[in-house]
Amino acid sequence: MAELQYDLIQSELSEPFIVSQESITHFETYGYVKLKNVLSPQLLEHYGAVITDLVFKLNKLTKPMEERTTYERAFLQVMNLWRESEEAKEFVFSKKLARIANDLLQVKGVRLYHDQALYKESSGGITPWHADQFYWPLSSPKTVTGWIPLQETLMEMGPLAFAEKSHHVEIGRDLEISDESEALMNESLKQFSLNETPFELGEVSFHAGWLFHRAGANVSGRPRKVMTMIYMDKDQQIVQPRNEYQQADWETWLLSRPVGGPADSELNPVLFQY
Fold this sequence. Notes:
This protein is about 30% helix and about 20% strand. By secondary structure, it is α+β, with helices and mostly antiparallel strands. The chain has a single domain (about 20-260), classed as q2cbj1_9rhob like domain (Jelly Rolls).
């Protein structure tokens, strides 16, 4: 890539994206928002190649699809790519994306919880209903996941689907991603409207930590490539882990920082603040 073009792509990662009051209100009310034209095709092509190379290099899930659990069939999952590559770090540390998260949460600043690539293979199964914050030993609901498709994501690829307003209730908050969570929440979430629509190239969604969401199977014959970053209020506090997954997260992503103290380990840098 020509140096000038690369410089332009890098600068795009810091350019402000103005989040409208309408979008902030939608996020507060429904628990998510989808924003069009956040990232250019050129940027997604460049960093998409970087992220894809890392996923294939670092992925450890190699058993045949028919031998996998429902969770394992949902996607290949690789965490904290920012620690593996300077170019991946440029993307993950994007001030543009962190500022959007900050403005939606309406806080003074946001830290990184962790990043993760989620690649749903060409024959990948559903991602069952779940709420992300079940896995996080964090005190406040001021958390948000940025879901960034690296290609146009049509319905047959399994785009993210949201149970609107489900972050306002406490049903199902003790469920891990599983067949059980899918069956139970399919019934429990009938009271909520479902938003399940394709993603245009450059469109990004942000959803609250306690919002229930799922994704369909990928029947497109092509991989569905997605990068995510999880942001939290920079003043987020750590709570005593309530399950084995939170215990693992506390040790892995928060480096066992003291319970009751700030989530401010070296893995949780402030990415944007006013």
